[in-house]
Amino acid sequence: GHPGCARALASTSGMLRAAAEHLGREAQDLSLEVLLSPGMRRHSGVDDILRRAALAVGRVVGSLIAYVDPELVVVSGEGVAVVEAYRETFEREVGGLRHWAAAPVPVLLRPFEFDEWARGAAALALDQWTVAAGDR
User: Fold this and answer.
1) CA 48/CA 96 separation, integer angstroms
2) What phi and psi, each to the nearest 5 degrees, are found at residue 107?
3) Average pLDDT, stretch 6-15?
4) What is the enclosing helix (H) or strand (E) of 76?
5) Which of 17, 42, 57, 129 gets the most CB atoms within 10 Å of its CB?
């Protein structure tokens, strides 16, 4: 993504690239687990990168809540651990985008596991199959 966009700030590749540049290392030598380790988070630059990622996700989620007005939001994906670690930053951004008259919307953070990916892929495959079968 372009500088400043949510993808550049909050995607795994964006966070790893930014951290690698800050640390003078190669992105492929890093992982989110490494960045989230206490020793790595003590680096102010790494802490800033992770905090900006949580802020970007909060801005996206807060904007969607303001526009769609859902009953519940589930945030998942491989980077959800960053949002969990910087939950206060995330929640402050979501709350700041809420209309003053709107009720807060619960936000559930769920790590993305393989079985959830497989279940989603199966649902898409079945959906396409049932639509095709219905056209006969």
Assistant:
1) 20
2) -120, 120
3) 92
4) strand 73-77
5) 57
What are residue 28's phi and psi, to 5 degrees?
-70, -15
How many angstroms separate the CA atoms of 45 and 79, rounded? Answer: 18
66, 98 in Cβ contact below 8 A?
yes
Which of 65, 99, 90 is closest to 6 using CA atoms?
90
Is residue 74 within 8 A of residue 104, CB to CB? The reply is: no
State mean pLDDT over 32-61: 95
Candidate from 3-7, 9-13, 88-92 with smallest mean pLDDT: 3-7
Query: What sign results for the dihedral spanned by CA atoms 127, 132, 135, 136?
Result: negative
Amino acid 89 reads T
Is residue 51 within 8 Å of residue 86, measured between CB atoms? yes
Query: How many of the other CB atoms lie within 10 Å of CB of 84?
Result: 15
Can you read off the two tokens belonging to residue 56?
A: 């970007």
pLDDT interval class at 64 (50, 70, 90): very high
Architecture of domain 6-134: 2-Layer Sandwich (3.30)
CA dist 67 and 107 (Å) reads 15
